[in-house]
Specification:
alpha+beta; 4-stranded antiparallel beta sheet; two-stranded antiparallel ribbon; 6 helices; 41% helix
Length: 206
Protein backbone atom coordinates (compact mmCIF):
# COMPACT_ATOMS: atom_id res chain seq x y z
CA UNK A 1 0.00 0.00 0.00
CA UNK A 2 1.43 3.36 -1.05
CA UNK A 3 1.09 6.54 0.95
CA UNK A 4 -1.16 7.89 -1.81
CA UNK A 5 -3.53 4.93 -1.42
CA UNK A 6 -3.65 5.36 2.33
CA UNK A 7 -4.21 9.11 2.08
CA UNK A 8 -7.09 8.45 -0.30
CA UNK A 9 -8.69 6.30 2.42
CA UNK A 10 -8.18 9.06 4.97
CA UNK A 11 -9.76 11.61 2.67
CA UNK A 12 -12.72 9.31 2.12
CA UNK A 13 -13.27 9.33 5.86
CA UNK A 14 -13.14 13.13 5.98
CA UNK A 15 -15.52 13.32 3.02
CA UNK A 16 -17.97 11.14 4.93
CA UNK A 17 -17.68 13.41 7.97
CA UNK A 18 -18.49 16.38 5.75
CA UNK A 19 -21.44 14.52 4.22
CA UNK A 20 -23.22 14.04 7.56
CA UNK A 21 -22.90 17.75 8.42
CA UNK A 22 -24.60 20.77 6.89
CA UNK A 23 -23.55 24.32 7.73
CA UNK A 24 -25.27 26.06 4.80
CA UNK A 25 -28.66 27.11 6.14
CA UNK A 26 -29.98 27.80 2.64
CA UNK A 27 -29.98 24.02 2.14
CA UNK A 28 -32.42 23.57 5.04
CA UNK A 29 -35.55 25.61 4.26
CA UNK A 30 -38.66 25.02 6.30
CA UNK A 31 -41.96 24.16 4.62
CA UNK A 32 -44.31 27.13 4.79
CA UNK A 33 -48.03 26.65 4.27
CA UNK A 34 -50.29 29.64 4.00
CA UNK A 35 -53.97 29.03 4.56
CA UNK A 36 -56.79 31.49 4.60
CA UNK A 37 -56.55 32.32 8.28
CA UNK A 38 -53.04 31.24 9.28
CA UNK A 39 -49.49 30.41 8.21
CA UNK A 40 -47.77 27.23 9.38
CA UNK A 41 -44.05 26.48 9.39
CA UNK A 42 -42.74 22.90 9.46
CA UNK A 43 -39.05 22.09 9.81
CA UNK A 44 -37.39 18.68 10.03
CA UNK A 45 -33.88 19.66 8.80
CA UNK A 46 -33.76 16.79 6.30
CA UNK A 47 -33.06 19.24 3.49
CA UNK A 48 -34.96 17.01 1.08
CA UNK A 49 -33.04 13.83 1.94
CA UNK A 50 -35.07 10.65 2.22
CA UNK A 51 -34.73 8.40 5.26
CA UNK A 52 -32.82 5.87 3.13
CA UNK A 53 -30.39 8.57 1.99
CA UNK A 54 -29.84 9.72 5.57
CA UNK A 55 -29.16 6.17 6.73
CA UNK A 56 -26.79 5.55 3.80
CA UNK A 57 -24.76 8.65 4.69
CA UNK A 58 -24.60 7.55 8.33
CA UNK A 59 -23.49 4.04 7.41
CA UNK A 60 -20.85 5.31 4.95
CA UNK A 61 -19.16 7.27 7.73
CA UNK A 62 -19.32 4.31 10.12
CA UNK A 63 -17.74 2.08 7.47
CA UNK A 64 -14.95 4.49 6.54
CA UNK A 65 -13.99 5.02 10.18
CA UNK A 66 -14.26 1.34 11.12
CA UNK A 67 -11.87 0.01 8.46
CA UNK A 68 -9.21 2.69 8.37
CA UNK A 69 -7.16 1.15 11.18
CA UNK A 70 -6.59 -2.01 9.13
CA UNK A 71 -5.13 0.09 6.31
CA UNK A 72 -3.01 2.08 8.76
CA UNK A 73 -1.68 -1.15 10.21
CA UNK A 74 -0.81 -2.54 6.80
CA UNK A 75 0.86 0.70 5.72
CA UNK A 76 2.93 0.74 8.90
CA UNK A 77 4.11 -2.83 8.29
CA UNK A 78 5.17 -2.00 4.73
CA UNK A 79 6.87 1.27 5.57
CA UNK A 80 9.05 0.48 8.57
CA UNK A 81 6.65 1.87 11.16
CA UNK A 82 5.41 0.17 14.31
CA UNK A 83 1.95 -1.36 13.67
CA UNK A 84 1.54 -1.86 17.41
CA UNK A 85 0.77 1.87 17.67
CA UNK A 86 -2.37 1.19 15.66
CA UNK A 87 -3.25 -1.94 17.65
CA UNK A 88 -2.80 -0.14 20.97
CA UNK A 89 -5.06 2.73 19.94
CA UNK A 90 -7.72 0.38 18.57
CA UNK A 91 -7.78 -1.65 21.79
CA UNK A 92 -7.93 1.41 24.05
CA UNK A 93 -10.54 3.53 22.27
CA UNK A 94 -14.12 2.64 23.22
CA UNK A 95 -15.43 4.91 20.47
CA UNK A 96 -13.49 3.09 17.76
CA UNK A 97 -14.52 -0.33 19.07
CA UNK A 98 -18.17 0.71 19.04
CA UNK A 99 -17.89 2.04 15.48
CA UNK A 100 -16.23 -1.20 14.32
CA UNK A 101 -19.05 -3.20 15.91
CA UNK A 102 -21.70 -1.03 14.26
CA UNK A 103 -20.06 -1.61 10.89
CA UNK A 104 -19.87 -5.37 11.47
CA UNK A 105 -23.50 -5.51 12.56
CA UNK A 106 -24.50 -4.02 9.20
CA UNK A 107 -22.65 -6.82 7.43
CA UNK A 108 -23.35 -9.85 9.64
CA UNK A 109 -26.43 -11.16 11.46
CA UNK A 110 -26.96 -9.40 14.78
CA UNK A 111 -25.82 -9.96 17.47
CA UNK A 112 -22.39 -11.53 17.02
CA UNK A 113 -21.53 -14.49 19.21
CA UNK A 114 -18.78 -12.71 21.15
CA UNK A 115 -20.62 -9.34 21.37
CA UNK A 116 -17.98 -7.71 19.17
CA UNK A 117 -14.88 -5.63 19.85
CA UNK A 118 -16.61 -3.61 22.55
CA UNK A 119 -18.34 -6.65 24.09
CA UNK A 120 -21.47 -4.47 24.12
CA UNK A 121 -23.11 -5.52 20.83
CA UNK A 122 -24.09 -1.92 20.08
CA UNK A 123 -26.87 -0.91 17.72
CA UNK A 124 -28.18 2.41 16.42
CA UNK A 125 -31.77 3.58 16.71
CA UNK A 126 -33.61 6.58 15.34
CA UNK A 127 -31.09 7.71 12.71
CA UNK A 128 -32.05 11.22 11.64
CA UNK A 129 -30.75 14.65 10.78
CA UNK A 130 -31.23 17.36 13.36
CA UNK A 131 -30.01 20.86 14.14
CA UNK A 132 -27.39 21.35 16.81
CA UNK A 133 -26.75 24.67 18.48
CA UNK A 134 -23.60 24.76 20.58
CA UNK A 135 -21.24 27.10 22.37
CA UNK A 136 -17.62 26.49 23.26
CA UNK A 137 -15.84 27.43 26.44
CA UNK A 138 -15.39 31.07 25.49
CA UNK A 139 -17.04 33.38 28.03
CA UNK A 140 -20.11 35.16 26.72
CA UNK A 141 -20.62 32.81 23.78
CA UNK A 142 -24.19 32.31 22.62
CA UNK A 143 -26.19 31.00 19.69
CA UNK A 144 -29.86 31.21 18.70
CA UNK A 145 -31.93 30.29 15.67
CA UNK A 146 -34.92 31.95 14.04
CA UNK A 147 -36.51 31.62 10.61
CA UNK A 148 -35.81 34.20 7.95
CA UNK A 149 -37.25 34.85 4.52
CA UNK A 150 -38.62 31.75 2.82
CA UNK A 151 -38.27 29.68 5.99
CA UNK A 152 -34.46 29.66 5.84
CA UNK A 153 -32.97 29.15 9.32
CA UNK A 154 -31.17 32.24 10.55
CA UNK A 155 -28.37 31.69 13.03
CA UNK A 156 -27.33 34.42 15.43
CA UNK A 157 -24.13 33.63 17.29
CA UNK A 158 -21.52 35.30 19.42
CA UNK A 159 -18.06 34.14 20.39
CA UNK A 160 -17.71 30.40 19.84
CA UNK A 161 -21.41 29.84 19.25
CA UNK A 162 -22.15 27.69 16.19
CA UNK A 163 -24.90 25.71 14.51
CA UNK A 164 -25.05 22.86 12.03
CA UNK A 165 -27.38 20.07 11.04
CA UNK A 166 -25.93 16.61 11.61
CA UNK A 167 -26.94 13.04 10.91
CA UNK A 168 -26.91 11.10 14.12
CA UNK A 169 -28.70 8.41 16.11
CA UNK A 170 -28.96 6.78 19.52
CA UNK A 171 -26.34 4.11 20.21
CA UNK A 172 -27.42 1.46 22.71
CA UNK A 173 -25.83 -1.71 24.05
CA UNK A 174 -27.31 -5.20 23.88
CA UNK A 175 -29.44 -4.53 26.96
CA UNK A 176 -30.85 -1.27 25.65
CA UNK A 177 -28.63 0.97 27.78
CA UNK A 178 -27.66 4.21 26.04
CA UNK A 179 -23.99 4.36 25.08
CA UNK A 180 -24.08 7.78 23.48
CA UNK A 181 -24.80 9.86 20.42
CA UNK A 182 -23.67 8.38 17.08
CA UNK A 183 -22.25 11.66 15.73
CA UNK A 184 -20.26 12.33 18.89
CA UNK A 185 -18.92 8.76 19.00
CA UNK A 186 -17.88 9.08 15.35
CA UNK A 187 -15.99 12.31 15.99
CA UNK A 188 -14.23 10.73 18.98
CA UNK A 189 -13.18 7.78 16.81
CA UNK A 190 -11.92 10.10 14.07
CA UNK A 191 -9.83 11.96 16.66
CA UNK A 192 -8.29 8.64 17.76
CA UNK A 193 -7.34 7.79 14.19
CA UNK A 194 -5.93 11.27 13.62
CA UNK A 195 -3.66 10.79 16.62
CA UNK A 196 -2.43 7.46 15.25
CA UNK A 197 -1.81 9.04 11.84
CA UNK A 198 0.27 11.76 13.46
CA UNK A 199 2.25 9.19 15.48
CA UNK A 200 3.05 7.34 12.25
CA UNK A 201 4.54 10.54 10.90
CA UNK A 202 2.04 11.07 8.13
CA UNK A 203 1.07 14.54 6.93
CA UNK A 204 -2.68 14.61 6.28
CA UNK A 205 -4.59 17.69 5.25
CA UNK A 206 -8.23 17.71 6.34
Amino acid sequence: MTVEELLARVQRMYASVDAVQEFDMTQLPAIIRQEKDYISVSQDFTGGLSQAEIENLAQALVYNIAHLDAHLRRWAQLNGKDPKRVDKAARAADSLKIIKDLSNSDKHPYPTRDWGHSRLAPSVLNIRRLMRLSTGGEAGSSVAMTFGSGGIPKIMSRGSGSANAVITGEVNDKDGNRLGDLYEIELEAVAVLEKVIAELGMDVEN
